[in-house]
Amino acid sequence: MTVARPSGRAPDALRPVRIERHYTRHAEGSVLVSFGDTRVLCTASVDNRAPGFLRGKGEGWVTAEYGMLPRATNSRNDREAARGKQGGRTLEIQRLIGRSLRACVDRGALGERTITLDCDVLQADGGTRTAAITGAYVALVDAVAWLKKRGAITRDPIHGAVAAVSVGIFQGVPVLDLDYAEDSACDTDMNVVMNDGGGFIELQGTAEGHAFRRDELDAMSALAEKGIAELIALQRAALAA
Amino acid sequence: MTVARPSGRAPDALRPVRIERHYTRHAEGSVLVSFGDTRVLCTASVDNRAPGFLRGKGEGWVTAEYGMLPRATNSRNDREAARGKQGGRTLEIQRLIGRSLRACVDRGALGERTITLDCDVLQADGGTRTAAITGAYVALVDAVAWLKKRGAITRDPIHGAVAAVSVGIFQGVPVLDLDYAEDSACDTDMNVVMNDGGGFIELQGTAEGHAFRRDELDAMSALAEKGIAELIALQRAALAA
Amino acid sequence: MTVARPSGRAPDALRPVRIERHYTRHAEGSVLVSFGDTRVLCTASVDNRAPGFLRGKGEGWVTAEYGMLPRATNSRNDREAARGKQGGRTLEIQRLIGRSLRACVDRGALGERTITLDCDVLQADGGTRTAAITGAYVALVDAVAWLKKRGAITRDPIHGAVAAVSVGIFQGVPVLDLDYAEDSACDTDMNVVMNDGGGFIELQGTAEGHAFRRDELDAMSALAEKGIAELIALQRAALAA
Amino acid sequence: MTVARPSGRAPDALRPVRIERHYTRHAEGSVLVSFGDTRVLCTASVDNRAPGFLRGKGEGWVTAEYGMLPRATNSRNDREAARGKQGGRTLEIQRLIGRSLRACVDRGALGERTITLDCDVLQADGGTRTAAITGAYVALVDAVAWLKKRGAITRDPIHGAVAAVSVGIFQGVPVLDLDYAEDSACDTDMNVVMNDGGGFIELQGTAEGHAFRRDELDAMSALAEKGIAELIALQRAALAA
Amino acid sequence: MTVARPSGRAPDALRPVRIERHYTRHAEGSVLVSFGDTRVLCTASVDNRAPGFLRGKGEGWVTAEYGMLPRATNSRNDREAARGKQGGRTLEIQRLIGRSLRACVDRGALGERTITLDCDVLQADGGTRTAAITGAYVALVDAVAWLKKRGAITRDPIHGAVAAVSVGIFQGVPVLDLDYAEDSACDTDMNVVMNDGGGFIELQGTAEGHAFRRDELDAMSALAEKGIAELIALQRAALAA
Amino acid sequence: MTVARPSGRAPDALRPVRIERHYTRHAEGSVLVSFGDTRVLCTASVDNRAPGFLRGKGEGWVTAEYGMLPRATNSRNDREAARGKQGGRTLEIQRLIGRSLRACVDRGALGERTITLDCDVLQADGGTRTAAITGAYVALVDAVAWLKKRGAITRDPIHGAVAAVSVGIFQGVPVLDLDYAEDSACDTDMNVVMNDGGGFIELQGTAEGHAFRRDELDAMSALAEKGIAELIALQRAALAA
């Protein structure tokens, strides 16, 4: 199967991925992640209190917030702060990021504290939520390292790694890591979050045009597995740097 | 593989499903759908205007809103109207219902009008979103029939049928149509929306505990296919009554 | 005086009234009340905390919330949760329901807890607030019985019964229990809440067209007394069932 | 029947009432009304557009808004603008004021324009809503006179007069025009709006303590009639000045 | 330099200023301040709790809220409580008033309590924020005197006096205390807050038309100094009355 | 006068300033401006419609919005979009940026369109509003150049240049361009906006501790003049690159 991707990439090729740690100086973890032209600033902030529903339970919490600068996109979007509420898409994405990251955290080992992952899109070109998850993982690891260095925690609350990528059916062919041109033209789009053990954490597929078949689901899952393995290797390299 | 489901059901058994048409008298389509103790009132309301972003394009729109009565659940939830905003879960579900139903609608044939599907949960026992999609489809068909009877549309805008069910891994075994007791205890939970051609429209899987493997994804997909085929038969029976 | 009521009822006739207890299974009290085609689901939820302004005073509280499903009416209303606020009519009605029910409650005997009465209109045909008060009373009694059975309270906090009905001047004639057709055409409309001792708890009359005279006020009050006596008998019968 | 009113007034005595026209200079009608220590600034503002729901129907609209300065009362209330919403009591009162004033307006004669009555309480001592209605009537007449003087309307849209007063049962005795000390201690409280023909426009009675009987309703209605006749005479005198 | 001010005033003349204490009866301090036709009601309310961020620190707080009645101005403005939020201009002004008054308060001497200054504009003709600051100072002094009389505080927390005035360049000439006619036509507008020691507390200049030069800044500062000295004398006289 | 600035800078020294054009790719103008560790992304977005209040008047508009990423600061701030409103500080700053930039725009020459300047703080270290104005000017010039290149406008709507800097009194000495360490410790803080003709556009001084004298105002104004001249040179250099 061949397909002419707008970017000229092979069907199973990721965009160039860059993970820059310590991008800003105040946050305990601060990562600028780029999937091609998609750039997301992910910061991890430590708060030494658990949220209300966990007080006194000896457990911590990891949560996420997501935002997009008004002109991160081709035409300007209203600023959500000015509109007075976060849209459904925003809430959906930040819930996804939070669940995904909690999947690799031992909340007892974290202790009664909260780590908030702020994922703010500086420039969007498709795949902002998967870039956000992939970058937020690195920011989270840095924030936990900061806690460990200060002796605030003893056991490592992070088990394994988590990364995410989108896959889709573009002109009948399964492709990896859709950019905006592909995303807006494809029939089916699936966001996949996996861990380094090859297990699925989240899988959200949507048929934009025609409904997808079991064999397409299989092909997309396989592509996602390949892409996420590469992303996890890149996270490791960034953390080792 | 055997499992003791709290309800005593076989792993591949749906709960008793009931689809009552014409449940309330004002709406163009009005269906009370029950998946066991989960009861959702789905109404379809016709408005002879397209939403702003479609004005003058000769196309219609199908959208959904979702709500849960404050005491539909075991402990009372705040009323969203009183809190002043719909929560992230609500927005996520109503976006899912809207996308799912639009997948079987020819918006050109619908013409410049809007059909709003209100899905209000009177009683919750797991699977409210899948019951809502399954019931809303029937309400939508009734509303379209109402339009056809009045000669407002000529071509049928509905192609095929759409239904939804949840599947999960409960005590290591894939099970169909989780009730609340299973949902809150299971490791993995997946909501699946399919059409009557066996194609996937939406697929949203979440690992609550351990991440799920490819073979588990396969088993759950197969269960969903079986359940949805049964639900579509029940929709047909209800519409033929 | 004779009048042709759209429903064919006599001027002093209530619509068929039905009070179904245990309509949903989670709430401590759950009643579906019907005044003709008006159907309101009234649930009573017990919370073992008093509201903030009563903490430490040894008293409880009874409060109400009111909502209408978007398509309970002839044309669809915006969902208040989506609009981001409850309208003035909604707030006015839920304040009325709360005050009316508190009039038969000994808050000291209730102890430091809150009972919330959620009155949600599934179908509207006039008189939703009076149906809500009449049904909520039965749900409240059931919730209190639930507390007594568990030994949580010893003295009965309910003294007497409370019910409500609307009266009006329709084509010059005083009539009882207006349905929507009458309500939208009548000159004067009055909602009356009374107890089983024949005392007035609330009385809210509005001249839509011409102002009403003292003798019309008298005639409407007498009709309300008759109707409420019948409603209280129906409440008793339902509670005895 | 005798009663020691905190103010020393006879049971059927109004507080000193003052109606100052032209209190502020920008509004088409501007009245400071005082019922004893209760002082409400009522302005009438003319807008040469009808509200959306009346466009093109050749009719106008009269509406009201009500507010209370934060320290109009004994202890400071939150500013509603800062809280981000108007409370239920505020909405209830402004709806009452609007309905009451519309009862004396021929909306066809007014033409496609809107008159907004802003009633802002500078100091509260009970009876703010009845003072507001009584004062807003005078502001409305002034605004209509302004329109007539400019030739904008030909037929007088005001028919008759409207005024309001509260009545109640204080220590077992029916009393007129309750001040705050009486209002907070009385058993029953009724706000009455009437026109100069002696007809009832609105009547809202609430039993705070014991439910009231028919004879008490009669006595309160008679007191209200007396008080409103006096208020209408004072309105006339103010307008003639 | 001569200029024809719309009011006929000399360039360095204030409008007639009136400071009426005890304007309403509930607040601990209540002042109606008039700068010509600009009339602002300033109340000071004492709350015996410090705000959350100061609890347990032995310090008090002074804060301000500002509002404008909808028809205080030439054409009616939306009511902020009805719109559901305070506008940017309102927030900016109330922050300015709060900062200005805190500049003369020893928060340790005040003790753990909050004084809220509500500044509500009854009629606007330019300079509402400067009138508000000037009047709020007097209300604050009265509220502190009330605390001293009750023995609640021992040391005087007020050091010095604070007043404010606007200055501007109107038709090329620096003028003092702009009214609305001047304000809307002038090139530059500056609000100045000073203390009785001749020190600047706040200074906010805006070039509406052409940018202003250093010599114009000097001239405006000198005018402000003169005007504020007069205002402080008027405050003293009012407080001595 | 000597002072030990935390940064070691001379009293009249700016921080290192960097102006990077074309920082993101979608906006018509996109500038990352750095004043030391303060980094603000300023984008200019062109919309070919004037705002409602200017429709049909042949004039355009320039407006600004300001935001701060939650972890741009030392401790995390709530996300304004999640809180549901922009704070007073945010509104005040975005109003200041908008007014400042409009001061160099000929709105007739711009034609009926809107340019929105989004200033989002990625990292804060004092002086975010002055950096925002300085960077937004460059983004505005780039957006206007984009319009000119497409032939959408013929006359240049930009006259002159606008830049801003903060000045203050730190340990008794006037200093230029305060960083966060100085800002939080200084007695007086003044934000100054000027044009390239040396005229003042905005001047906002606040005494945090002791009130400032005329000679201090003079010294600060002189420092601001010097700093802004340097900033305007840097803007020119960036635009020439």
Automatic annotation (TrEMBL), chains A, B, C, D, E, F:
Domain (Exoribonuclease phosphorolytic): residue spans on this chain: 14-143, 161-227
InterPro entries hit by this protein: ExoRNase_PH_dom1 (IPR001247), ExoRNase_PH_dom2 (IPR015847), ExoRNase_PH_dom2_sf (IPR036345), PNPase/RNase_PH_dom_sf (IPR027408), Ribosomal_Su5_D2-typ_SF (IPR020568), RNase_PH (IPR050080), RNase_PH_bac-type (IPR002381), RNase_PH_CS (IPR018336)
Keyword Nucleotidyltransferase found: yes
Keywords from the UniProt entry: Nucleotidyltransferase, RNA-binding, rRNA processing, Transferase, tRNA processing, tRNA-binding
Protein residues bound to phosphate: 89, 127-129
Stored HAMAP family: RNase_PH
Family: Belongs to the RNase PH family.
Function: Phosphorolytic 3'-5' exoribonuclease that plays an important role in tRNA 3'-end maturation. Removes nucleotide residues following the 3'-CCA terminus of tRNAs; can also add nucleotides to the ends of RNA molecules by using nucleoside diphosphates as substrates, but this may not be physiologically important. Probably plays a role in initiation of 16S rRNA degradation (leading to ribosome degradation) during starvation.
PANTHER family: EXOSOME COMPLEX COMPONENT, EXOSOME COMPLEX COMPONENT RRP41
Protein's name according to its UniProt entry: Ribonuclease PH
Gene that produces this protein: rph
